[in-house]
Amino acid sequence: MATFLYKLGRLAFRRRHFVALMWVALLTLAGVGAASAPPAGSTSFSIPGTEAQKAFDLLEQRYPGMSADGATARVVFKAPDGGKMTDKANKATVRETVKELRSGSEVASVADPYAGHAVSKDGSVAYASVKYKVSGMELEDSAKDALKDAARDARDAGLTVEIGGDALTATPETGSSEVIGIAIAAVVLVITFGSLLAAGFPLLTAIIGVGIGVSTISALASALDLGSTTSILASMIGLAVGIDYALFIVSRYRAELAEGREREDAAGRAVGTAGSAVVFAGLTVVIALVGLSVVNIPMLTKMGVAAAGTVAVAVLIALTLIPALLGYAGRRIKPAGEKSRLLGGGRTPKKPGRPNMGTRWASFVVRRPVAVLLLGVIGLGAAAIPAASLELGLPDDGSQPVSTTQRRAYDLLSEGFGPGFNGPLMVVVDAKDSDHPKTAFTKVGDEIKGLKDVVTVTPATPNKTGDTATITVIPDSKPSSATTEDLVHAIRDKGADITSATDAKVLVTGSTAMNIDVSQKLNDALLPYLALVVGLAFLLLIVVFRSILVPLKAALGFLLSVTAALGAVVAVFQWGWLSGLMNVEETGPVMSMMPIFMVGVVFGLAMDYEVFLVTRMREAFVHGERPQQAVVTGFKHGARVVTAAAVIMMAVFSGFIGSSEAMVKMIGFGLAVAVLFDAFVVRMAIVPAVLSLLGKRAWWLPKWLDRVLPNVDVEGDGLRTDADRRDPDGEKELVRA
């Protein structure tokens, strides 16, 4: 592989005009496609195989025109202090608002609070339920404006009015902190390279790659049913890896120049060596992201595949566009150790010959491997303790900031009707195979009334044919509580008994039940997903490192860092530690998709540092260095770059903590913390300590397996010339380094 990539790097360096034109054309094509594509329609959220989804599908069949997945809104009214919603003037205002709401073309129905008994016992709060024909993502802006206008008119009449439900679903915003993250990345690159031009290349290529990826997602959003969160996560991951991959190759290019190579040859060798590490690091990220499809949640699969495509573009850009840009830069890119004149180049170093920080740190770890290993493992173990209290769930309006009308509506309904009113359960009774459907409907309602944590059970509402009915159940506890989850399971257990007695099937659905089923499905899929992703990457790393113990150590280190990161997420978003600093207004269960998505992404990113750092060590080892010295050499050449890459990733991910979308905020924080733990504790401390203790055993591979495995030559041994092999002084110099 190194030889092929070497030729590709030289070709891109020579044919830089063609390569640059090709990427500009692809960016333009993707941009035009995004601009001319129809706007994204409904972002369906289906969970195949779950009871809640089966119930939704049944409702679509048995209640045609019901729009079971249509957007909903609850317009909540509160009377002024001392008044009641049953007062004549307040009644008139509410009925005028209901009339105004019914005039919308996309409105399916509006329930009058006074006809539907939607007034609290104390008379202070009432609500009107609005049902739309289309989902929240499909709802026209004019329909949302009409909803807001109706609420404003009621406010002008003296009532407190707030709107809940998914009708006002907004496109998530990332905030200005994302720009700050990119600015921090730029500063780190300038410090790392000592050159504004060299620092600009990774940023430029990463932006081009993300531009192509996100524009392609936008162009296909309508056809493939992709949501706005998909493009945000793709840009987050694509930006981070795009900068890192380019950083690896530019850094190696400058190192090759420092060894006296011609620029075209240096570009080829940089792509052949660091580019090989980039290819395999990118492959692990792609495997981890595409592997999300095993969970069988379509939305999660689409997010993973879209992000994987952006990563693949970042790899291709690093291998082709970076050497092309290096060709344009010419002598303005300085060899490693030299700075541009603008940043102090040409000055005499204060302490010539002093080992760099990476060398000093690795030497320290090699001298005290046991102490460093124990300290790292114990520290990550302590950080992972909160993960034992992990609770999963999906957000509802109760997790919204208190400044939003959705959250205020949620609080008003809780105040007037109880906390469970915000998470009603819909029980669907399928009596098609029952001889006495009405008896079955009555029996289901009576059985549910006898359960704990039930406040209200509405009478069964049959469909036109009388073979199916819906029953609404109001729990006594809030939607995200464990008590409500227990109630859902209790109803389903009763349903099994009812089925055996009446031949009627009982299904529990609604947003609360759907959230519970999603959490359970993700919990069940986590271990199989881990086994698949870690297993495939383990096999890939055996090929890369030609070792058994090094990939095993890499996988175990990843498990340490991701568990510690999950502990940090639980501490902040569930327990509330530092929640003010993170702008987390409401703590609660961790989002169901967070752990499995973070596992996939962090595993791929962790392997970036593993591959880049350890391939340098293996390169030194196969060229004749002792195992402990090879560890020091790997850090001498790779520690600065890996440190810069980790800081850049942390800055980029941290930029998404300012997002208005709870999932994006949580993932941004989780990934930033995971990179911190993995890069600076696992890869910088635990990895050199373990390799030092293992010695030559770290690179052991059974002879039969050595013969079977393909030789991908990641360390670039095939690029060494005969002169390199015959130069004893060069070998001695290499060992001394």
What attributes characterize this protein structure?
elongated, 5-stranded antiparallel sheet, 7% strand, 737 residues, 62% helix, single chain, 11 strands
Secondary structure elements and pairings:
Blueprint: H1 2-14, H2 16-36, H3 51-62, E1 72-78, H4 88-102, E2 107-110, E3 125-132, H5 141-156, E4 160-164, H6 177-193, H7 196-224, H8 228-258, H9 263-290, H10 298-329, H11 357-367, H12 369-384, E5 392-393, H13 405-417, E6 425-430, H14 437-449, E7 454-457, E8 461-462, E9 468-475, H15 482-502, E10 505-509, H16 511-545, H17 549-574, E11 590-591, H18 593-622, H19 627-654, H20 662-694, H21 703-708, H22 722-726, H23 728-736
Parallel strand pairs: 5-11
Antiparallel strand pairs: 1-3, 1-4, 2-3, 6-9, 6-10, 7-9, 8-9
Helix pairs in contact: 1-2, 1-9, 1-10, 2-7, 2-10, 4-5, 6-7, 6-19, 7-8, 7-10, 8-9, 8-10, 8-19, 9-10, 9-16, 9-18, 11-19, 12-17, 12-20, 14-15, 16-17, 16-18, 17-18, 17-20, 18-19, 18-20, 19-20
Q: Can you offer a commentary on this structure?
A:
The protein is an alpha+beta fold and 737 residues long. Helix content is 62%, strand content 7%. It contains 23 helices and 11 strands. The protein has helices at residues 2-14, 16-36, 51-62, 88-102, 141-156, 177-193, 196-224, 228-258, 263-290, 298-329, 357-367, 369-384, 405-417, 437-449, 482-502, 511-545, 549-574, 593-622, 627-654, 662-694, 703-708, 722-726, 728-736, and strands at residues 72-78, 107-110, 125-132, 160-164, 392-393, 425-430, 454-457, 461-462, 468-475, 505-509, 590-591. Strands 6, 7, 8, 9 and 10 form a 5-stranded antiparallel β-sheet that branches. Strand 8 (461-462) and strand 9 (468-475) form a beta hairpin. Helix 1 (2-14) crosses helix 2 and helix 11 crosses helix 19. The chain is elongated and about 90 Å long.
